[in-house]
Structure formats: structure tokens, C-alpha cells
């Protein structure tokens, strides 16, 4: 018998449960230095996440387009098919975009005191920086992505581009 600190998880079973329940995230573990969770796609995802640790993503079901920002500010896209994984280094702004019937396993390092996850949005009209939400994540079960989205989309000021005047529509609707 394995010690309780060594959980074995049926990834397909967790994906099925998320699909049936409508929830977006199931934390598998978050202890010691390690965090692992399974997430369903969010059809409205548009922000770029800056993670204070390295991140590994494995597509359990479906495919993902991982948008990312290059050092020069341009955007690239990496297509991650089912059964494939990608390593995203600390500080690379990335935006995992995949439908709600697709599921990804994410493994990261737990956040240290004072570390912030940052969520950035860019103007859909001119690609200028729009807004950033920063949060310290001490419990991933609280779904910090949803909280950042609520704050951003709840503010017309945050969604309005100072450069061209475009207002990003509320993509959650």
C-alpha cells in the first residue's frame, strides 16, 4: 500500500467528473513544493498568465492552442495535441486556449510567500497592454483565474484601451 502522500489519480475519471459537474478545476494535490490540477477549457480565455514558477501541461483530452508573448511583444501560438505535453518556463506570458470538452493536467511549484501570479490582457483592436491583475495564490482550489476574470470583466475602465479606445467585450457572456 502506498503512503497517503503518494496519490494515484485516474486522469480520465477526474476529467469525466469535471465534465459532468460543470466545474473548471480539480486540484489533485498541493503540498510540499508541488501543485497539480486538472482544468477544463474556458472558451472565453484571453489573458496571458505570468507564472512565478515553471509549468508543465499535459493534454489529457482534446487539443490546446497555447498563445504566448515573445520577448519583443509579438504573439505566437503552439498547438498541443491530445497526449502531448509542453514545458513553460517561469515568466513566459502564456494563454492556454481550449474548449470546455478538453482537459489538461498542470504541474507547478507551490507559490512562495510574496510571489504573485499575474494575468495580463491586451487590446483586441491594437494589441496595446490593457490591464493586469496580480494575486498571491495560496490555495489553487479557490480558482484564481476565475477571480481575475471577474475583476477584469467587471470593470469597463480596465477593458478600455487608452491607445485606441476599443472596449474589450465581456467574453464570458
Structure overview:
- The protein has 173 residues and is mainly beta.
- The protein has helices spanning 11-21, 144-153, 156-159; strands at residues 25-31, 34-40, 48-50, 55-61, 64-69, 75-80, 85-88, 94-97, 103-109, 117-122, 129-135.
- It starts with 10 loop residues before the first helix and ends in a 14-residue tail after the last helix.
- The model has no long low-confidence stretch (mean pLDDT 92).
Summarize the topology.
Blueprint: H1 11-21, E1 25-31, E2 34-40, E3 48-50, E4 55-61, E5 64-69, E6 75-80, E7 85-88, E8 94-97, E9 103-109, E10 117-122, E11 129-135, H2 144-153, H3 156-159
Counting DSSP E segments of at least 2 residues, the number of strands comes to 11
Look at the helices and sheets and give the structural class. mainly beta
Topology as H/E string?
A: HEEEEEEEEEEEHH
Largest sheet: 5 strands, antiparallel
Output the strand order for the largest sheet.
1-2-9-4-7
Unreliably modeled segments: none
How much of the residues is beta strand, in percent?
35-45%
Q: Features of this protein?
A:
173 residues, 3 helices, five-stranded antiparallel β-sheet, globular
Compact summary:
Pfam families: 3-HAO. By secondary structure, the protein is mostly beta strands. Helix content is 14%, strand content 37%.
Amino acid at each position: 500500500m502506498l503512503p497517503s502522500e503518494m496519490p494515484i489519480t485516474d486522469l480520465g475519471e477526474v476529467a469525466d467528473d469535471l465534465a459532468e459537474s460543470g466545474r473548471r478545476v480539480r486540484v489533485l494535490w498541493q503540498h510540499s513544493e508541488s501543485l497539480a490540477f486538472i482544468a477544463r477549457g474556458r472558451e472565453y480565455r484571453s489573458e496571458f498568465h505570468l507564472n512565478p514558477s515553471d509549468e508543465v501541461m499535459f493534454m489529457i483530452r482534446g487539443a490546446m492552442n497555447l498563445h504566448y508573448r515573445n520577448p519583443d511583444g509579438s504573439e505566437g501560438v503552439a498547438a498541443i495535441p491530445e497526449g502531448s505535453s509542453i514545458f513553460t518556463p517561469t515568466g513566459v506570458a502564456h494563454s492556454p486556449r481550449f474548449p470546455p470538452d478538453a482537459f489538461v493536467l498542470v504541474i507547478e511549484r507551490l507559490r512562495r510567500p510574496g510571489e504573485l501570479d499575474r494575468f495580463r490582457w491586451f487590446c483586441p483592436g491594437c494589441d496595446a497592454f490593457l490591464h493586469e491583475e496580480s494575486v498571491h495564490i495560496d490555495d489553487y482550489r479557490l480558482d484564481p483565474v476565475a477571480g481575475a476574470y471577474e475583476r477584469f470583466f467587471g470593470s469597463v475602465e480596465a477593458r478600455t484601451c487608452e491607445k485606441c479606445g476599443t472596449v474589450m467585450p465581456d467574453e464570458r457572456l
